[in-house]
Protein backbone atom coordinates (compact mmCIF):
# COMPACT_ATOMS: atom_id res chain seq x y z
CA UNK A 1 0.00 0.00 0.00
CA UNK A 2 1.28 3.50 -0.85
CA UNK A 3 1.58 5.88 2.07
CA UNK A 4 0.25 9.45 1.84
CA UNK A 5 3.85 10.72 1.68
CA UNK A 6 4.73 8.34 -1.16
CA UNK A 7 1.67 9.48 -3.15
CA UNK A 8 2.55 13.16 -2.71
CA UNK A 9 4.45 14.89 -5.48
CA UNK A 10 7.18 17.37 -4.58
CA UNK A 11 6.52 21.14 -4.53
CA UNK A 12 6.84 23.02 -7.82
CA UNK A 13 6.58 26.58 -6.61
CA UNK A 14 8.25 28.16 -3.61
CA UNK A 15 7.30 31.63 -2.38
CA UNK A 16 9.88 33.22 -0.10
CA UNK A 17 8.32 35.94 2.05
CA UNK A 18 11.65 37.49 2.96
CA UNK A 19 10.26 40.02 5.41
CA UNK A 20 6.97 41.33 6.79
CA UNK A 21 8.45 44.85 6.86
CA UNK A 22 6.87 47.18 4.30
CA UNK A 23 6.78 50.95 3.79
CA UNK A 24 3.18 50.73 2.56
CA UNK A 25 0.09 50.13 4.71
CA UNK A 26 -2.45 48.57 2.35
CA UNK A 27 -5.92 48.00 3.73
CA UNK A 28 -6.16 44.66 1.87
CA UNK A 29 -2.69 43.32 2.72
CA UNK A 30 -2.55 39.52 2.85
CA UNK A 31 0.11 39.46 5.58
CA UNK A 32 -1.20 38.11 8.91
CA UNK A 33 -2.94 40.66 11.12
CA UNK A 34 -0.48 39.80 13.90
CA UNK A 35 2.57 40.05 11.59
CA UNK A 36 4.29 42.49 13.98
CA UNK A 37 4.61 39.65 16.50
CA UNK A 38 6.68 37.63 14.02
CA UNK A 39 9.69 39.89 13.78
CA UNK A 40 12.41 37.28 13.31
CA UNK A 41 13.78 36.86 9.82
CA UNK A 42 15.82 34.01 8.41
CA UNK A 43 19.38 34.97 7.58
CA UNK A 44 21.00 34.68 4.17
CA UNK A 45 22.51 31.25 4.83
CA UNK A 46 19.16 29.77 5.93
CA UNK A 47 17.38 31.10 2.84
CA UNK A 48 20.08 29.69 0.56
CA UNK A 49 19.84 26.28 2.22
CA UNK A 50 16.04 26.28 1.84
CA UNK A 51 16.30 27.18 -1.85
CA UNK A 52 18.87 24.42 -2.42
CA UNK A 53 16.69 21.84 -0.63
CA UNK A 54 13.56 22.86 -2.53
CA UNK A 55 15.35 22.77 -5.88
CA UNK A 56 16.80 19.36 -5.08
CA UNK A 57 13.23 18.14 -4.49
CA UNK A 58 12.19 19.44 -7.90
CA UNK A 59 10.79 22.96 -7.33
CA UNK A 60 11.21 25.11 -10.45
CA UNK A 61 9.81 28.56 -9.66
CA UNK A 62 10.82 30.86 -6.84
CA UNK A 63 9.00 34.08 -5.96
CA UNK A 64 10.56 36.74 -3.73
CA UNK A 65 7.82 38.47 -1.80
CA UNK A 66 7.07 40.05 1.56
CA UNK A 67 6.23 42.66 2.94
CA UNK A 68 8.60 44.46 0.64
CA UNK A 69 11.46 42.11 -0.35
CA UNK A 70 13.63 45.03 -1.50
CA UNK A 71 14.08 45.93 2.18
CA UNK A 72 16.44 42.95 2.38
CA UNK A 73 19.89 44.06 1.25
CA UNK A 74 20.84 40.44 0.50
CA UNK A 75 18.15 40.17 -2.19
CA UNK A 76 20.66 40.23 -5.06
CA UNK A 77 22.71 37.49 -3.38
CA UNK A 78 19.61 35.35 -2.87
CA UNK A 79 18.47 35.83 -6.47
CA UNK A 80 21.92 34.87 -7.75
CA UNK A 81 21.90 31.74 -5.60
CA UNK A 82 18.42 30.75 -6.77
CA UNK A 83 19.24 31.40 -10.42
CA UNK A 84 22.43 29.39 -10.07
CA UNK A 85 20.33 26.46 -8.87
CA UNK A 86 18.18 26.74 -11.99
CA UNK A 87 15.04 28.38 -10.53
CA UNK A 88 12.87 30.71 -12.61
CA UNK A 89 12.82 33.75 -10.34
CA UNK A 90 10.34 36.56 -9.93
CA UNK A 91 10.19 39.59 -7.68
CA UNK A 92 6.84 40.71 -6.26
CA UNK A 93 7.23 44.32 -5.19
CA UNK A 94 5.50 47.60 -4.36
CA UNK A 95 8.36 49.26 -6.25
CA UNK A 96 9.69 51.10 -3.20
CA UNK A 97 13.46 50.68 -3.27
CA UNK A 98 13.71 49.60 -6.91
CA UNK A 99 16.19 52.18 -8.13
CA UNK A 100 17.75 51.83 -11.55
CA UNK A 101 21.01 50.66 -9.95
CA UNK A 102 19.22 47.98 -7.96
CA UNK A 103 17.16 46.83 -10.93
CA UNK A 104 20.40 46.48 -12.91
CA UNK A 105 22.08 44.57 -10.09
CA UNK A 106 19.11 42.20 -9.89
CA UNK A 107 19.27 41.71 -13.64
CA UNK A 108 22.95 40.86 -13.35
CA UNK A 109 22.07 38.39 -10.58
CA UNK A 110 19.70 36.65 -13.01
CA UNK A 111 16.24 37.86 -11.94
CA UNK A 112 13.78 36.75 -14.63
CA UNK A 113 10.64 38.74 -14.05
CA UNK A 114 9.08 41.51 -11.93
CA UNK A 115 5.52 41.98 -10.67
CA UNK A 116 4.79 45.56 -9.67
CA UNK A 117 1.71 46.42 -7.63
CA UNK A 118 -0.48 49.49 -8.05
CA UNK A 119 -3.47 50.29 -5.89
CA UNK A 120 -5.28 52.33 -8.56
CA UNK A 121 -4.83 54.44 -11.69
CA UNK A 122 -5.18 57.66 -9.70
CA UNK A 123 -2.58 59.08 -7.35
CA UNK A 124 -5.30 59.98 -4.83
CA UNK A 125 -6.70 56.48 -4.44
CA UNK A 126 -3.35 54.68 -4.78
CA UNK A 127 -1.97 56.79 -1.96
CA UNK A 128 -5.13 56.63 0.13
CA UNK A 129 -5.39 52.83 0.06
CA UNK A 130 -1.72 52.32 0.92
CA UNK A 131 -1.41 55.33 3.25
CA UNK A 132 1.75 56.26 1.39
CA UNK A 133 2.75 58.74 -1.29
CA UNK A 134 3.96 56.18 -3.79
CA UNK A 135 1.98 56.59 -7.02
CA UNK A 136 4.57 58.65 -8.90
CA UNK A 137 7.39 56.46 -7.61
CA UNK A 138 5.61 53.36 -8.97
CA UNK A 139 5.18 55.04 -12.35
CA UNK A 140 8.94 55.73 -12.45
CA UNK A 141 9.69 52.14 -11.41
CA UNK A 142 7.49 50.80 -14.23
CA UNK A 143 9.68 52.78 -16.65
CA UNK A 144 12.87 51.34 -15.12
CA UNK A 145 11.53 47.77 -15.38
CA UNK A 146 10.66 48.22 -19.05
CA UNK A 147 13.89 50.02 -19.93
CA UNK A 148 15.89 47.02 -18.65
CA UNK A 149 13.87 44.54 -20.70
CA UNK A 150 12.24 42.64 -17.85
CA UNK A 151 8.89 40.99 -18.58
CA UNK A 152 6.51 43.09 -16.46
CA UNK A 153 3.29 42.13 -14.69
CA UNK A 154 1.27 44.92 -13.15
CA UNK A 155 -0.97 43.78 -10.34
CA UNK A 156 -3.92 45.65 -8.92
CA UNK A 157 -6.12 44.35 -6.10
CA UNK A 158 -9.75 45.19 -6.96
CA UNK A 159 -12.57 46.17 -4.57
CA UNK A 160 -15.40 48.64 -4.34
CA UNK A 161 -13.14 51.70 -4.42
CA UNK A 162 -11.29 51.01 -7.66
CA UNK A 163 -13.68 48.76 -9.63
CA UNK A 164 -15.25 51.84 -11.27
CA UNK A 165 -11.74 52.75 -12.53
CA UNK A 166 -11.01 49.41 -14.16
CA UNK A 167 -10.94 50.87 -17.68
CA UNK A 168 -8.43 53.52 -16.62
CA UNK A 169 -6.32 50.91 -14.82
CA UNK A 170 -6.12 48.90 -18.05
CA UNK A 171 -5.15 52.03 -20.00
CA UNK A 172 -2.48 52.87 -17.43
CA UNK A 173 -0.97 49.38 -17.71
CA UNK A 174 -1.04 49.66 -21.49
CA UNK A 175 0.72 53.04 -21.35
CA UNK A 176 3.43 51.54 -19.12
CA UNK A 177 3.97 48.73 -21.65
CA UNK A 178 2.99 45.95 -19.24
CA UNK A 179 3.06 42.44 -20.67
CA UNK A 180 0.38 41.25 -18.25
CA UNK A 181 -2.14 43.01 -16.05
CA UNK A 182 -3.53 41.01 -13.15
CA UNK A 183 -6.80 42.44 -11.82
CA UNK A 184 -7.04 40.45 -8.62
CA UNK A 185 -10.43 40.74 -6.96
CA UNK A 186 -9.91 40.99 -3.23
CA UNK A 187 -9.56 37.72 -1.37
CA UNK A 188 -10.96 38.29 2.09
CA UNK A 189 -8.15 37.16 4.41
CA UNK A 190 -5.77 39.06 6.66
CA UNK A 191 -6.29 42.81 6.56
CA UNK A 192 -8.87 42.50 3.78
CA UNK A 193 -11.03 40.34 6.08
CA UNK A 194 -10.75 43.00 8.76
CA UNK A 195 -11.79 45.65 6.21
CA UNK A 196 -14.35 43.53 4.36
CA UNK A 197 -17.35 45.72 5.07
CA UNK A 198 -15.67 48.74 3.51
CA UNK A 199 -14.05 46.86 0.61
CA UNK A 200 -16.88 44.55 -0.48
CA UNK A 201 -18.35 45.54 -3.85
CA UNK A 202 -21.88 44.78 -4.94
CA UNK A 203 -22.45 42.09 -7.54
CA UNK A 204 -23.63 44.83 -9.91
CA UNK A 205 -20.32 46.73 -9.50
CA UNK A 206 -18.37 43.53 -10.21
CA UNK A 207 -20.39 42.69 -13.32
CA UNK A 208 -20.00 46.21 -14.70
CA UNK A 209 -16.22 46.05 -14.23
CA UNK A 210 -16.05 42.58 -15.76
CA UNK A 211 -17.90 43.91 -18.81
CA UNK A 212 -15.26 46.63 -19.23
CA UNK A 213 -12.49 44.01 -18.95
CA UNK A 214 -14.08 41.82 -21.63
CA UNK A 215 -14.44 44.77 -24.02
CA UNK A 216 -10.89 46.02 -23.42
CA UNK A 217 -9.44 42.55 -23.89
CA UNK A 218 -10.97 42.44 -27.36
CA UNK A 219 -9.46 45.86 -28.15
CA UNK A 220 -6.01 44.83 -26.88
CA UNK A 221 -6.08 41.68 -28.97
CA UNK A 222 -3.01 39.95 -27.54
CA UNK A 223 -0.84 43.07 -27.01
CA UNK A 224 -1.26 42.87 -23.25
CA UNK A 225 -2.82 39.94 -21.43
CA UNK A 226 -5.46 41.01 -18.91
CA UNK A 227 -6.15 38.49 -16.15
CA UNK A 228 -9.38 38.93 -14.19
CA UNK A 229 -9.04 36.90 -10.99
CA UNK A 230 -12.50 35.60 -10.21
CA UNK A 231 -14.49 37.21 -7.36
CA UNK A 232 -15.50 33.88 -5.85
CA UNK A 233 -18.02 35.38 -3.40
CA UNK A 234 -20.08 36.74 -6.30
CA UNK A 235 -19.43 33.90 -8.76
CA UNK A 236 -20.48 31.29 -6.15
CA UNK A 237 -17.69 29.09 -7.44
CA UNK A 238 -15.07 27.74 -5.04
CA UNK A 239 -11.56 28.35 -6.29
CA UNK A 240 -9.13 25.44 -6.53
CA UNK A 241 -7.09 27.08 -3.80
CA UNK A 242 -3.33 26.64 -4.43
CA UNK A 243 -4.23 23.74 -6.76
CA UNK A 244 -4.94 21.77 -3.60
CA UNK A 245 -3.52 21.97 -0.08
CA UNK A 246 0.14 20.93 -0.09
CA UNK A 247 -0.09 19.88 -3.74
CA UNK A 248 2.35 22.18 -5.58
CA UNK A 249 2.93 25.32 -3.50
CA UNK A 250 4.96 26.17 -0.38
CA UNK A 251 5.13 29.61 1.23
CA UNK A 252 8.00 30.26 3.61
CA UNK A 253 7.23 33.08 6.07
CA UNK A 254 10.02 35.46 7.16
CA UNK A 255 10.66 33.48 10.36
CA UNK A 256 10.98 30.18 8.49
CA UNK A 257 7.45 28.86 9.06
CA UNK A 258 6.46 26.75 6.05
CA UNK A 259 2.83 27.07 4.96
CA UNK A 260 0.60 25.65 2.22
CA UNK A 261 -0.73 29.19 1.47
CA UNK A 262 -0.19 32.80 2.55
CA UNK A 263 -2.99 32.80 5.11
CA UNK A 264 -2.87 29.33 6.65
CA UNK A 265 -0.88 30.55 9.64
CA UNK A 266 -4.06 31.80 11.33
CA UNK A 267 -5.76 28.37 11.29
CA UNK A 268 -5.96 27.10 14.87
CA UNK A 269 -4.70 23.74 16.08
CA UNK A 270 -2.17 23.09 13.31
CA UNK A 271 1.54 22.82 14.04
CA UNK A 272 3.18 24.24 10.94
CA UNK A 273 6.83 23.23 10.51
CA UNK A 274 9.68 25.71 10.79
CA UNK A 275 12.49 25.36 8.27
CA UNK A 276 15.04 26.50 10.83
CA UNK A 277 14.49 23.12 12.47
CA UNK A 278 13.28 20.87 9.65
CA UNK A 279 14.30 20.27 6.08
CA UNK A 280 12.01 21.20 3.21
CA UNK A 281 11.60 17.47 2.50
CA UNK A 282 10.49 16.69 6.08
CA UNK A 283 8.14 19.65 6.18
CA UNK A 284 6.55 18.92 2.80
CA UNK A 285 6.12 15.16 3.09
CA UNK A 286 5.70 14.49 6.80
CA UNK A 287 4.52 17.53 8.80
CA UNK A 288 1.03 17.74 10.25
CA UNK A 289 0.66 21.19 8.68
CA UNK A 290 1.08 19.94 5.11
CA UNK A 291 -0.73 16.62 5.62
CA UNK A 292 -3.83 18.06 7.31
CA UNK A 293 -5.97 18.83 4.23
CA UNK A 294 -4.15 16.85 1.57
CA UNK A 295 -6.19 14.51 -0.57
CA UNK A 296 -9.91 13.99 0.10
CA UNK A 297 -10.17 11.98 3.32
CA UNK A 298 -10.72 15.14 5.44
CA UNK A 299 -13.66 16.39 3.33
CA UNK A 300 -17.20 16.83 4.61
CA UNK A 301 -19.78 14.49 3.14
CA UNK A 302 -20.96 17.42 0.94
CA UNK A 303 -17.57 17.68 -0.80
CA UNK A 304 -16.69 14.01 -0.45
CA UNK A 305 -19.66 13.02 -2.61
CA UNK A 306 -19.36 15.86 -5.14
CA UNK A 307 -18.07 15.45 -8.69
CA UNK A 308 -16.18 18.76 -8.44
CA UNK A 309 -13.90 17.63 -5.63
CA UNK A 310 -11.09 16.65 -8.00
CA UNK A 311 -11.21 20.12 -9.62
CA UNK A 312 -11.64 22.59 -6.76
CA UNK A 313 -10.39 20.39 -3.89
CA UNK A 314 -13.27 21.60 -1.73
CA UNK A 315 -12.23 25.26 -2.08
CA UNK A 316 -10.34 27.36 0.45
CA UNK A 317 -9.66 26.22 4.02
CA UNK A 318 -8.93 29.73 5.30
CA UNK A 319 -12.19 31.06 3.87
CA UNK A 320 -14.04 28.12 5.41
CA UNK A 321 -12.52 28.91 8.81
CA UNK A 322 -13.07 32.68 8.68
CA UNK A 323 -16.71 32.44 7.62
CA UNK A 324 -17.87 29.27 9.42
CA UNK A 325 -15.33 28.77 12.21
CA UNK A 326 -14.51 25.29 10.85
CA UNK A 327 -11.48 24.94 8.57
CA UNK A 328 -12.71 21.53 7.33
CA UNK A 329 -16.11 22.84 6.24
CA UNK A 330 -17.20 23.05 2.61
CA UNK A 331 -16.02 26.41 1.26
CA UNK A 332 -18.95 28.72 2.10
CA UNK A 333 -18.91 30.38 -1.33
CA UNK A 334 -20.19 27.06 -2.73
CA UNK A 335 -23.98 26.94 -3.34
CA UNK A 336 -23.95 23.43 -1.81
CA UNK A 337 -22.52 24.74 1.47
CA UNK A 338 -25.06 24.96 4.29
CA UNK A 339 -23.28 28.23 5.22
CA UNK A 340 -23.63 29.95 1.81
CA UNK A 341 -26.19 32.30 3.42
CA UNK A 342 -23.36 34.01 5.31
CA UNK A 343 -21.69 35.04 2.04
CA UNK A 344 -25.02 36.18 0.61
CA UNK A 345 -25.55 38.29 3.73
CA UNK A 346 -22.18 40.00 3.19
CA UNK A 347 -23.07 40.77 -0.44
CA UNK A 348 -26.50 42.02 0.63
CA UNK A 349 -24.72 44.20 3.20
CA UNK A 350 -22.73 45.83 0.38
CA UNK A 351 -25.97 46.55 -1.50
CA UNK A 352 -27.58 48.03 1.58
CA UNK A 353 -24.52 50.12 2.39
CA UNK A 354 -24.42 51.53 -1.14
CA UNK A 355 -28.09 52.46 -0.90
CA UNK A 356 -27.24 54.55 2.20
CA UNK A 357 -24.13 56.01 0.53
CA UNK A 358 -26.18 57.32 -2.37
CA UNK A 359 -27.42 59.99 0.03
CA UNK A 360 -25.11 62.53 1.65
CA UNK A 361 -21.96 60.39 2.05
CA UNK A 362 -19.67 60.14 -0.99
CA UNK A 363 -18.91 56.45 -1.72
CA UNK A 364 -15.49 57.22 -3.23
CA UNK A 365 -13.00 58.86 -0.84
CA UNK A 366 -10.82 60.24 -3.63
CA UNK A 367 -9.02 62.72 -1.41
CA UNK A 368 -6.02 61.85 0.69
CA UNK A 369 -7.22 63.79 3.75
CA UNK A 370 -6.78 63.17 7.48
CA UNK A 371 -9.57 61.03 8.90
CA UNK A 372 -10.80 59.66 5.56
CA UNK A 373 -9.86 56.08 6.47
CA UNK A 374 -11.63 56.21 9.84
CA UNK A 375 -14.72 57.70 8.21
CA UNK A 376 -14.72 54.83 5.72
CA UNK A 377 -14.21 52.29 8.53
CA UNK A 378 -10.82 51.21 7.15
CA UNK A 379 -7.92 49.95 9.26
CA UNK A 380 -4.44 50.38 7.80
CA UNK A 381 -1.88 47.59 7.95
CA UNK A 382 0.81 49.04 10.22
CA UNK A 383 2.88 47.89 13.18
CA UNK A 384 0.84 49.84 15.71
CA UNK A 385 -2.46 48.35 14.54
CA UNK A 386 -0.94 44.89 14.28
CA UNK A 387 0.31 45.01 17.88
CA UNK A 388 -2.98 46.43 19.17
CA UNK A 389 -5.13 43.92 17.27
CA UNK A 390 -2.96 41.08 18.54
CA UNK A 391 -3.43 42.23 22.16
CA UNK A 392 -6.94 43.68 22.34
CA UNK A 393 -8.66 42.89 19.03
CA UNK A 394 -9.10 46.63 18.36
CA UNK A 395 -7.05 48.97 16.18
CA UNK A 396 -6.09 52.46 17.39
CA UNK A 397 -5.81 54.05 13.92
S1 LIG B 1 -0.10 44.55 0.21
FE1 LIG B 1 0.76 46.61 0.54
S2 LIG B 1 1.31 46.64 2.75
FE2 LIG B 1 1.03 44.47 2.17
S3 LIG B 1 3.07 43.77 1.63
FE3 LIG B 1 2.09 44.44 -0.28
S4 LIG B 1 2.70 46.59 -0.54
FE4 LIG B 1 3.14 46.03 1.60
S1 LIG C 1 -19.43 20.72 -2.62
FE1 LIG C 1 -17.23 20.87 -2.25
S2 LIG C 1 -16.25 19.85 -4.00
FE2 LIG C 1 -18.41 20.28 -4.58
S3 LIG C 1 -18.34 22.26 -5.65
FE3 LIG C 1 -18.79 22.69 -3.48
S4 LIG C 1 -16.76 23.06 -2.55
FE4 LIG C 1 -16.39 22.03 -4.52
From TrEMBL:
Respond yes or no to whether keyword Oxidoreductase is given for this record.
yes
Reaction equations catalysed:
[PQQ precursor protein] + S-adenosyl-L-methionine = E-Y cross-linked-[PQQ precursor protein] + 5'-deoxyadenosine + L-methionine + H(+)
- The UniProt record lists the Radical SAM core domain at 8-230
Q: Pfam families given for it?
A: Radical_SAM, SPASM
The EC class name is: oxidoreductase
Q: Which CDD domains match?
A: Radical_SAM (cd01335)
Recite the UniProt keywords alphabetically: 4Fe-4S, Iron, Iron-sulfur, Metal-binding, Oxidoreductase, PQQ biosynthesis, S-adenosyl-L-methionine
Q: Which cofactor does it need?
A: [4Fe-4S] cluster
The keyword Translocase is annotated on this UniProt entry = no
Task: Name the EC number(s).
Answer: 1.21.98.4
Q: How is the cofactor bound?
A: Binds 1 [4Fe-4S] cluster. The cluster is coordinated with 3 cysteines and an exchangeable S-adenosyl-L-methionine.
Describe which pathway this protein belongs to, using the record's wording.
Cofactor biosynthesis; pyrroloquinoline quinone biosynthesis
Binding residue positions for [4Fe-4S] cluster:
22, 26, 29
Q: How does it assemble?
A: Interacts with PqqD. The interaction is necessary for activity of PqqE.
Q: Which family does it belong to?
A: Belongs to the radical SAM superfamily. PqqE family.
Q: What does this protein do?
A: Catalyzes the cross-linking of a glutamate residue and a tyrosine residue in the PqqA protein as part of the biosynthesis of pyrroloquinoline quinone (PQQ).
Q: Which HAMAP family match?
A: PqqE
Q: What is this protein called?
A: PqqA peptide cyclase
Organism of origin is Pseudaquabacterium terrae
What broad taxonomic lineage does this protein's source fall under? Bacteria, Pseudomonadati, Pseudomonadota, Betaproteobacteria, Burkholderiales
**Which gene is annotated as encoding this protein in its UniProt record?**
pqqE
Amino acid sequence: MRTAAAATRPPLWLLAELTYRCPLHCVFCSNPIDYAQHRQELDTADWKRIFSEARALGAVQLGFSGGEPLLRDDLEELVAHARGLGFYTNLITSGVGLTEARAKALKAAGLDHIQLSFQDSTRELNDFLSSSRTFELKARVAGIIKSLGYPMVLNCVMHRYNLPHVGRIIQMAEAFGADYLELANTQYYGWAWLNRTALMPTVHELREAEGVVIAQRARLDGRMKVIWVSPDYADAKPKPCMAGWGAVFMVVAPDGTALPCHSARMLPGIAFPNLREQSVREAWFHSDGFQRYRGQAWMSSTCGSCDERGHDFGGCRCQAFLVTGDAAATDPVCPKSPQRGRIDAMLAGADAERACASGAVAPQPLRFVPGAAQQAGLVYRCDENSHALGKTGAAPC
